[in-house]
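Case study 2.
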Amino acid sequence: MQTARPLVEVVRLGLVSYQEGLRLQQVYTDRHRSGPAHTLLLCQHLPVYTTGIRHKPYPGPVLDRLRLLGADVHHANRGGLITFHGPGQLVCYPVLNLGSFKKSVRWYVGQLEKTVIALCGRFGVEAATSPHTGVWVGDNKICAIGIHCGRYVTSHGLALNCNTDLSWFDHIVPCGIEGKGVTSLSRELQRDVGVEEAVPHLLDAFREQLSCRLTEAETPEPDRNGGVSSA
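Prediction:
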């Protein structure tokens, strides 16, 4: 008998701070304690530079300089090095129990890469993987990927540049890779491509690559700190 495809709830968070995104990922991760509760969190972040677990702490003056640009700075427990998140970037945090899919982190990261490549293909943009992390158009990264996986429950995910202000990346070496650049759907297509236009294509590609079903969940209520609450 064929096993039913896993059901994943899509939660649209809108524009939230990075800290609020972390809090909500933990909320949805905790739901897996009582059984599979697959969730796909979609959002945009206020300007923030984040560093991953593969890098020693950055010098204080460097972080202070980034903060003076008007961005927050956070250390995250994801893989990867430093990157930027901000408006115009489609951030996708799948909170999945891989036991319902395939218990392989390498497989999972590969499916995220294929999801983004398929999305780009829908726009006529030829994207590919490389020996470096993420998804690339030539020598320019269009999507950063960095995940965390504990007891086969995933968090963090991917960040696709749609109509992001790419000048934010000028102040760092994105993902610690020298001699490479960044790009966006808007830059590649020479027209404005917003997050809202990209979301349906992301969902279709995610459904296909992860062999799952998607259902829309209610957007969490705003909390008192200007974020959103899952209560």
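The radius of gyration is 17 Å.
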